[in-house]
Amino acid sequence: MIQRGEDEVSIGIRQAGVGDGPAIAEMIQELAAASGEVSPVTAAYAEDYLRVAHSQVLLAEEAGQPVGLLTYSVRPNLYHAGPSAMIEELVVRAGQRGRGVGSALITELLARLVQMGCTEASVTVMPDNEAAQRLYRRHGFVDEAVFLERHF
């Protein structure tokens, strides 16, 4: 349950599993389209992703319908001598934004990471995505490093 002013929104969050591939692929494609890009992700690829031990997906649902997702991975970290998490994607469907869905997903993830004994959580945000930066900062994330990448 998310409380927003006088409105109560009934959002459930669960770990994605087999059969969630189509909804996951659709939301990732929506994320890409919002940036004017096209993602090659398919439902089959999303199903394969769910089978990888270190790759996880949290789904936010309202009335049984997916309204958002958060993908993350957890891996050992030598420097911190413990597990480290990387948030990969956070997607909230266009009609659902501003209702606390993204915040609920982050809150749930952080609670799970603490239970797992993670030493840190990281996320990369595009420099012009100020709304996402504000969201993560509200949850305690700080500017820590510069993330570089190379595409093949």
Q: What can you tell me about this protein's structure?
A:
By secondary structure, the chain is of the alpha+beta class. It has one domain: 3-Layer(aba) Sandwich (Aminopeptidase). The protein has four helices and seven strands. A five-stranded mixed beta sheet has the order 3-4-5-6-7. The chain has a two-stranded antiparallel ribbon with strand order 1-2. The longest helix has 16 residues. 20% of the residues are buried. The model has no long low-confidence stretch (mean pLDDT 92).
Instruction: Write the CATH fold name.
Output: Aminopeptidase
Total helix count? Answer: 4
Give the beta-strand count: 7
Write the H/E string, N to C.
EEEHHEEEHEH
Mean pLDDT: 92
The coarse silhouette is globular
Give the low-pLDDT segments. Answer: none
- Strand order, sheet with most strands: 3-4-5-6-7
User: Helical residue percent?
Assistant: 25-40%
**Structural class by helix and strand composition:** alpha+beta
| First-last Cα distance | 42 Å
Per CATH, the class reads Alpha Beta
CATH architecture designation: 3-Layer(aba) Sandwich
Structurally, the number of domains stands at 1
| Largest sheet report | 5 strands, mixed
Strand content: 25-35%
CATH superfamily: Gcn5-related N-acetyltransferase (GNAT)
Rg, Å, rounded: 15 Å
Can you give keywords for this protein?
Aminopeptidase, two-stranded antiparallel ribbon, 152 residues, alpha+beta, five-stranded mixed sheet
Q: Summarize this, please?
A:
By secondary structure, the chain is an alpha+beta fold. 31% of the residues lie in helices and 30% in strands.
